[in-house]
Amino acid sequence: MISIEAGTTADSATELLVLLDRLRAQTGREDVPKREVIDDNLNLLADDMRALQRGVPGTAHPELTLSRWSKVQSLLGGRPRFAPLVSAISSRIEHLFR
Fold first, then answer.
1. 23-68 pLDDT, tens digit each
2. Per the domain annotation, does 2 fall within a domain?
3. Which of 7, 34, 49, 84 lies 20 to 30 A from 92 at CA?
4. Is residue 38 part of a domain?
């Protein structure tokens, strides 16, 4: 579980939430295979980030978050259009959850 450090984790979660919303919007405009699976995982990741923003203890489990993100990455792998967002999200998830 993630503990909240005053300001830093909540701020990182907010930044990550913005990026996840951008990725969801971008994949929504494309013909992406398994978009429903991608959307489900992005929604769950967004829920985790909202919980971190609110400082709700025990709601974001690193193993689940990393697994969800890994699933999204694998489904979007090799698509250059998404590469900048995927890279930015990966960096922030690594910062928060590893």
1. 999 999 988 999 999 999 999 999 989 888 887 766 778 899 999 9
2. no
3. 34
4. yes
Question: What's the pTM value of the predicted model, to 2 decimals?
Answer: 0.85
Domain range for residue 78?
8-97
Query: Exposure string (b/e) for 43-66, b if CB count within 10 Å is 16 or more?
Result: ebbbebbebbbeeeeeebeeeebe
For residue 3, being part of any structural domain is answered with: no
Closest CA to 89 of 36, 18, 35, 39: 18
Angle between helices 8-28 and 35-54 (to 10 degrees): 160
- Tens of pLDDT, residue by residue over 78-89, are 889 999 999 999
Per the structure block, which two tokens stand in for 54? 């609110």
1 lies in some domain = no
